[in-house]
């Protein structure tokens, strides 16, 4: 089935360029030029992924993202000329899966779109297996298997010893595979809002996890650092 991409962008030239290149790659495409139209189209057309500008007429991209994230779990990628770290962090914290700074290369955009869709479909299949009694609680990534129900991690066929908080952190990362997560969000979801500490706690636990599951902890490929934001689990 052909994936559907909704482009939300008020700059007509960029809108047409994105549409042309996505259609060349085989995607179905719809476009919206303001926030209100974006909500209307997303609700009626049910896209598989949304490319969302931030500076939009009627309603900005941040507000659109917050509303859509509460209604659907599809990938949302921000496209923005706003390159400040605070904007990237805010975008990721309200539920975006990625933040692409303008100007960008079309090749990079297409790679990111395909990567997010691949992850989305994989997680959707796992969720369906879980709902039908299949092994949805067991997530496998090559030589690494995370069994959420049994609180067990297998690496190269052998059980991996993790501290309780290390497992909770890894579980949260794999459940959000492909999504950039800020340190603050991880701290809130894994340690709780009332935790007395700072984001360095996350960095320490990430370092411990990398030492156990990465082939080369100095050049991680599973838990990657998202510059200016936090971390993302790639699998």
If you had to describe this structure to a student in words, what would you say it looks like?
The protein is an alpha/beta fold and 235 residues long. The protein has two domains: 4-120, Rossmann fold; 137-233, Arc Repressor Mutant, subunit A. It is built from eight helices and twelve strands. The strands form three sheets. A five-stranded parallel sheet has the order 2-1-3-4-5, sandwiched between helices. Helix 2 (35-45) packs parallel to helix 3 and helix 6 packs across helix 8. The protein is globular and about 55 Å long.
In short:
The chain has 235 residues and is of the alpha/beta class. It contains eight helices and twelve strands.
Per CATH, the class of the largest domain reads: Alpha Beta
Our estimate of the beta-strand percent is 15-25%
Q: Which stretches are poorly predicted, pLDDT < 50 over at least 5 residues?
A: none
Name of the CATH superfamily of the largest domain: Response regulator
Radius of gyration: 19 Å
- Alpha carbon gap, first and last residue: 24 Å
